[in-house]
Amino acid sequence: MPSSLETGNLVLLLAQALIYFVVMAALFRARRRIGIGVFLCALGVMHFLETYLAAVFYIQLPFGIISPGCTVLFSGKLLMILLLYIKEDAATVRQPIYGLLIGNFLIVGLVVVLRNHEVVPAIPERQPDIRFVDEIGWLMVWGTALLFLDAIGVILLYEKLGRWLREYQLPRIIIASAVILTFDQLGFFLALHYVTGAPWPVLYGGWAAKMGAALVFSVLVFVYLRVVERRESGVLPLPLSDVFDTLTYRERYLDLLGETGRDRVTGALDRGQFDSLGRDLTGSAVAVGDAVSLVVLDVDGVRRIAEEEGPVAGDAVLRSVTRLLIDKAGDEPCYFFRHGGSVFALLLQGRKHLAALDLAEELRRTTARADHADSGAIVTISVGVATGPEDGRDLYTLFAAAKERLQEAKAAGRDRVVGRDGVVRR
User: Fold this and answer.
1) If 0-12 CB within 10 Å is exposed, 13-18 middle and 19+ buried, where does residue 74 land?
2) 3-state class (DSSP) for residue 401
3) Are residues 339 and 363 in the same domain?
4) Which of 59, 292, 336, 377 could covalently link to 285 via disulfide, CB atoms 3.0 to 4.6 Å apart?
């Protein structure tokens, strides 16, 4: 059972973490109004206190001895850097990291010069402890060097995890921060042990505390992103000139595509736009008695191309077909969506069934005649067409009817257009 002292220390530690996060998050939220510099200065000004506490200030928790400097201030700083990356870019992230690193080297350099002064005992019983300043200075330099690696590592790992957990941001943040804080705890403790003689229990207790901090701060960052921040469209950052050069592009690019409703492979409107925009357009057309047709098509043979030549070749074919179809239907009042895989949907406002069949047939012939993806690949499309209100009064009923006719076209040998009453046009 934890003692009352240990329980009290734990409560105080959680309170410190909450105060730190609330203040820093408020400064970050106000960055558009008061400037990002206020947030960055607040982030860096506590670096000395963080290092000082790590060197001399320890408390007892149920799972070991820890320093609030490492547990709250450093862990919080790392998560603030990750938040800065998620909402801004790598060009902004490097500012506090380089600033801290240069500033700490400057401190060490100035201390070397200060050693040459002849000190006057102006205040009795108060003498400067240059040795202590040396220790703190070198620990700050080492800690900032680790922070440089930590910041790059947490961003790269966060992005790497996006391949598998892109829709699950909280686990990405937790895993990335826990792994990097484990690395940092080992690296910083070795220097702390060498410089100050910190005992080995500080390593184990500090690691356990940092894992708790990773969980607490990750949840706070996630809640902040979901509740306080709103996604804002932006442009890709200008090229950088150092190790942060490539960190920002993939995540920013995917987010930008997501915000504009475009599929990142083909450039067609994405499934989210199909569900929202397509539903609204269909409903409004049917409500006023206008015809609305839905052309659902599948690009034949893409799976075979991807299996034989690789997924890059398959994506190239999809892009080529998408450009061709959008160009061909460009003068029509229509919306072109990628529904998923090799299946696309073309929503035609004001087009009755026979007119939609004519356009679908023209698209089929154009696709069959074209070479795609610079490899000379010949592909075809199978198409199903449904028109409201006869085939349905909402988007999903129309899609079900058109998809069923698409399956009929594929069963009949592909490279066909199937409309109402089983009519096959070729």
Assistant:
1) buried
2) helix
3) yes
4) 292
